[in-house]
Amino acid sequence: MYLVAIAWIYVVLMMAVAEATSPQGTLLGAFFTFLLYGALPLSIVMYLLRTPHRRRMRRAREEEEAKTGEQEPPAEAPAVGDTEQR
């Protein structure tokens, strides 16, 4: 997974360098090329690929809390008529 991510960032970096050094290219265009073709899509893909891992870690943490009894009670919502007077 990380090898593909590194390769994609390398390709996009080379695209940005080519645009920056081109006679008709600009540094601003190279920046947006890197950002919109590389960093933003790759961050979304990596986030989505890590979803199962985050879910497993959350379940393990909840099971550990349930075993040790350290689970905090949920915060109670105030009743409809309850308001603080200041």
Account of the 3D structure:
The protein has 86 residues and is mainly α. It has one domain (2-62). The chain is 71% helix and 0% strand. The protein is built from three helices and no strands. The chain is elongated and about 65 Å long. The termini are far apart. The model has no long low-confidence stretch (mean pLDDT 86).
Write a compact overview of the structure shown:
This protein has helices at 2-21, 27-49, 51-68.
Task: State the distance separating the first and last CA atoms.
Answer: 56 Å
Could you state the order of secondary-structure elements as H and E? Answer: HHH
Structural class by secondary-structure content: mainly alpha
Output mean pLDDT: 86
Strand content: under 5%
* Total count of helical runs of at least 4 residues: 3
Gross geometry: elongated
Query: How many separate structural domains?
Result: 1
Residue runs with pLDDT of under 50 for 5 or more positions: none
What does the radius of gyration come to? 24 Å
* Quantity of strands, as a count: 0
Sheet bearing the most strands, described? none
Helix content: over 70%
